[in-house]
C-alpha cells in the first residue's frame, strides 16, 4: 500500500489491514473528484481545490448549520487543521435521519461531539445527539456514524430547513 505504509500485506488480508492502518488512502468527498491520498494530502488537496464547497468552522466555537430538508449532505472543514466532516441527511417517513462522520483512517482518534436541532415552530423543543466521532476513509452514501439524530418532520414543516448547532466539547 502507498502513502507511507511499510507493512507487506497479501491481497486477501488487505481489507482486514485497512481497518487499522493509519496510512489507508482517503478519498476526496467531492462527487466528481477522484483524488485519493494520505489524510494529509487529502486535507491539502481539499484546501487548494474545493475550499468553497465546505462550511468552515473552528473547534472551540459552536457551529451554526442550516440544511435544506432535501439536501443530502454538507461538507464541513475545520479551519486550523483542515479536518473534513460530512453531515449527511436522509429523508425518511418520520423525518430526517442525520449522521455526522469524519474523513480519515478508521483508527483516527475519536473525539466527542454534540449536535442539537431546534423545532422552528415550538422553540422550546430541542433534540440533541451526544456521540463519538467515527472516521471513514471513503465517504459513501451511508457514512459510518455512532448513532444518528432523527429529526421529526414538524421541525422543518414551515421553513423546509433544518437548523443545527454543532459543538466539540474540549
Ligand atoms: Zn498499512
Ligand atoms: Zn477533490
In short:
With 170 residues, this protein is mainly beta. Helices cover 9% and strands 38% of the residues.
Distance, first to last CA: 34 Å
The residue ranges in which pLDDT falls below 50 over 5 or more consecutive positions are none
CATH architecture of the domain at 53-167: Sandwich
How would a textbook summarize the main sheet?
6 strands, mixed
Tell how many strands the DSSP assignment holds.
Answer: 12
Portion in strands: 35-45%
Fold-level CATH name of the domain at 53-167: Apoptosis, Tumor Necrosis Factor Receptor Associated Protein 2, Chain A
Strand-pairing-aware structural class = mainly beta
Mean pLDDT: 89
Radius of gyration, in Å, reads 17 Å
Could you explain how this protein is built, in words?
With 170 residues, the protein is mostly beta strands. It has a domain at 53-167: Apoptosis, Tumor Necrosis Factor Receptor Associated Protein 2, Chain A. The chain is 9% helix and 38% strand. The chain has helices at residues 14-18, 39-49, and strands at residues 26-27, 36-37, 54-57, 63-68, 73-78, 84-91, 95-103, 112-118, 126-132, 135-136, 149-152, 161-167. The strands form three sheets. Strands 3, 5, 6, 7, 10 and 11 form a six-stranded mixed beta sheet that branches. It has a four-stranded antiparallel beta sheet with strand order 4-12-8-9, with no helix packed on it. Strands 1-2 form a two-stranded antiparallel ribbon. The longest helix has 11 residues, at 39-49. The model has no long low-confidence stretch (mean pLDDT 89). The structure holds zinc ion (2 copies). One zinc ion (ZN) binds next to helix 2. This is Detected protein of confused Function. GO terms for molecular function: zinc ion binding. Residues 1-51 form the SIAH-type domain. It comes from Hibiscus syriacus (Rose of Sharon).
Amino acid at each position: 500500500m502507498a502513502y507511507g505504509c511499510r507493512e507487506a500485506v497479501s491481497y486477501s488480508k488487505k481489507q482486514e489491514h485497512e481497518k487499522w492502518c493509519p496510512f489507508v488512502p482517503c478519498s476526496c468527498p467531492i462527487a466528481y473528484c477522484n483524488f485519493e491520498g494520505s489524510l494529509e494530502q487529502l486535507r491539502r488537496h481539499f484546501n487548494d481545490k474545493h475550499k468553497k464547497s465546505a462550511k468552515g468552522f473552528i473547534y472551540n466555537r459552536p457551529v451554526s448549520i442550516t440544511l435544506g430538508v432535501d439536501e443530502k449532505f454538507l461538507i464541513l472543514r475545520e479551519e486550523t487543521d483542515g479536518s473534513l466532516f460530512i453531515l449527511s441527511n436522509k429523508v425518511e417517513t418520520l423525518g430526517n435521519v442525520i449522521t455526522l462522520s469524519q474523513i480519515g483512517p478508521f483508527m483516527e482518534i475519536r473525539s466527542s461531539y454534540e449536535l442539537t436541532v431546534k423545532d422552528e415552530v415550538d422553540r422550546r423543543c430541542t433534540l440533541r445527539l451526544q456521540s463519538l466521532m467515527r472516521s471513514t476513509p471513503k465517504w459513501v452514501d451511508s457514512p459510518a456514524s455512532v448513532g444518528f439524530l432523527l429529526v421529526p418532520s414538524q421541525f422543518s414543516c414551515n421553513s423546509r430547513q433544518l437548523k443545527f448547532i454543532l459543538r466539540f466539547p474540549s
